[in-house]
Specification:
2 domains; lyase; Aspartate Aminotransferase, domain 2; 15 helices; PyrdxlP-dep_Trfase; alpha/beta; pyridoxal phosphate binding; 5-stranded mixed beta sheet; Aspartate Aminotransferase, domain 1; 7-stranded mixed beta sheet
Length: 398
Amino acid sequence: MLHKSATIRQTDIALNPIDVSYIPHHMNEDALSEHAVSPPIFQTSNFCFSSFVELKAALEDEVGSCLYTRGNNPTVNLVESKIAALEHGEKAKLLGAGVAAISNAVMAFVRQGDHIICVADSYGWMQRLLTYLERFGVSHTIVDGTRTEDIERAIRPETRIIYLESPTSLTFFIQDIPAITAIAKAHGIRTIMDNSWATPIFCNPIDFGVDLVVHSLSKYLGGNSDIIGGVIVGKAEDIDHIVWQESLQMGAVADPFMAWLVMRGMRTLHIRMPVHYRSALAVAQFLENHPRVASVNYPMLASHPQHELAQKLFRGGSGLFSFRLKTHSVEDVARFVDSLSLFKRAVSWGGYESLVFPEAAHYAGSVPADRLNLIRLHIGLEDASLLVQDLAQALEGV
């Protein structure tokens, strides 16, 4: 039975039309596609040349030429150009996983003795990378990203990178990106931001002064839960440096078919994201009014403590947010999660499917007691009223 607070009023979720006029449409694919409506996949590992001179020229310009797909491939390069344009960057580099994008972006700009500042509650594999880098003499400081002064106080003479994730992965706190990048530039520090949550539809961190933007392509840019990939966007000089210093050596290659699937997903990105946003807002509003819910962590909710800042940074919000049950019992959390029928239990997000991930299931014994009731939802493209009904019936058992 639908809880009385589950009624979704259209006035609650009425949104201004999403402005997509900034999305570039000028990229000419004709030379690559032979006028095909859908550009072809160059599913090849190697490229051949008609002469010694051509081969020699390609070897001398491995970053700029199609010599071997580990470095360049026409399908991959086309997708890179589209993502770079969407993110208002000069150039992009596609890689084999989101964590590869993070690792390459970070490792290309640090060496022994350097220091990294990273916001708390960022992606777990980013924090594992920081631990990994300790063996090579690269130190780090984890700071509360909601307080810009904490980031400024953490800066050392050897600080080379400030890593941002806005909002953070499970608690969904945001950072004042323009204020932080201004501080970073004053100290000659490079900033990197994960923009997988908002996507270029709702935020362009480069416009706020961020140097490098990273994405997990398995999320919204791919959008169909069928690929693993990552991308780094920034100035051409920085991307070329990353290619030479990290990606060619580390070999996290972007497969051409994966790139083509990303391109296919990007064609509907500006249509999908407003739907995720409207549905997530409706579900979040239902949850914040439910008697068995303690709090909802969604920056686009008026009740979020950083809502005013969110409105300045984001043109809208994605389908990912978290909430807390009014219980710290793992048994209650498990009962709630297992009672859901429309939400699939899974760790990733960004596709059609609505998903649930309880932090209590994350690495037994490592979850703080005050976070055992934290549950992350991805609101997919299903009917929002059906999702609300599913949540309502599951909450009755808590």
